[in-house]
Amino acid sequence: MAGLPRVNCWALAEHAGDASPGGMQHFLAAAVWDDDGLRADLRDYVVEQLGDPDAVLVIDETGDLKKGTMTVGVQRQYTGTAGRIENAQVAVYLTYAAPAGHAFLDNALYLPVSWTSDPQRCAAAGVPDSVTFATKPTLARQMIAKALDVGVPARWVTGDEVYGNDPALRATLARRGLGYVLAVARSHQIDTKAGRRRAIDLAVTLPTHAWTRISAGQGAKGQRLYDWAFIATSDQDLPGSHHLLIRRNIHTGEYAFYRTHSPSPVPLATYVQVAGIRWTVEDDFQNSKELAALDEHQVRRWTSWHRWTLLAMLAYAFLAVTTARAHDTQSADELIPLTVNEVRHLFVCLAFPRPEPAAGFVLAWSWWRRRHQARAQASHYQRQAAALQLN
Fold it and tell me: Phi, psi at residue 50, to the nearest 5°?
């Protein structure tokens, strides 16, 4: 959270006053941690500070663009970070969204089949032998189950089409008594009394009186108003109340669709509120990358990636909780409430001001970096020359 231009083991070690990055690199790659225990500490901290029985579990994935083929999980795949297919590493995250605030609870790295079908590649990246291929909805289902099994209070789950289109995830949530509002595609098939129909075909036949204008929450420029409608459905004979929720843009007429479930009937406005909360995970991605270096890891192996992202999630949880506490204790008359960005700025400037380093220390680090880079460059050239000779 130091606000460094780049955040990696080199920059962190120099900022901390270390003579080299060796200690930081060992800390991530080889030091003895109780990784599961620290992950449980993150979950317990977030729930202790923000917990609410009506909280929403938000699932989504994010990608980090990478070069080469050696970084664990990397391949050419679609990532919303770039909005297209790129060489990237993708992970699924679970956000806890409550009235007081929101922060990450857990994450899981997505390993494509190109990795799980190549044991040698996985072994080189330190992937445990027990790890097998799992779809993104499966990873989400595992994280949600783990949270619920230890008593995390929550009433709803929401996510985008990747998760809404998965019937196994919907069935698991319904059987565990959780409500959900999960996006689906316009071509998603819905069972009706007249047979299976596409979601878009149902939407365009609705009469004017079927629509209600409701805000999906407050945005940066005011209320996010849309027209909404819902149609009662069934889903695999699962318990509870099931609907197709339809959102229509009041300016463009564009449609969006959601499969919904509630253990007991709830009004349309409740589903709309949950649908609007899905965007908290986008805020968490943006803020945790900007303020806690979630995406700036320069590591290749399984253990190092999990440790780096866990530390970033802990740092961001601290910012989110501190911001929530400030909202409870500080008057905001004539001021907008404190944001996580402002809290990080105040924390860095006031809590831990850093004296200017001595000239000798700065020069020593410059020498170390350039020596390391020269050795790396020579190694790359030697490997390239050897490959050319073999060919």
Answer: -120, -5
Residues 380 and 237 in one domain: no
Q: What's the predicted TM-score (pTM) here?
A: 0.90
Quote the domain boundaries for residue 363: 355-390
Q: Which residue from 57, 131, 145, 46 is spatially nearest to 93, judged by alpha carbons?
A: 57
pLDDT in tens, 231-275: 998 877 888 999 999 999 999 999 999 999 999 999 999 999 999
Instruction: Give the C-alpha separation, 18 to 339, whole Å.
Output: 32
Name the β-bridge partners of 98.
101
Indicate if 215 and 361 belong to the same structural domain. no
**Position 340 in a domain:** no
- What is d(CA 123, CA 295) in angstroms, rounded to the nearest whole number? 23
Residue ranges of alpha helices (H) inside the chain are: 9-16, 22-29, 35-50, 113-116, 119-124, 136-149, 161-164, 167-175, 199-203, 268-277, 280-292, 302-329, 340-346, 359-390
Please name which of 110, 144, 116 lies closest in space to residue 128, comparing C-alpha atoms: 116
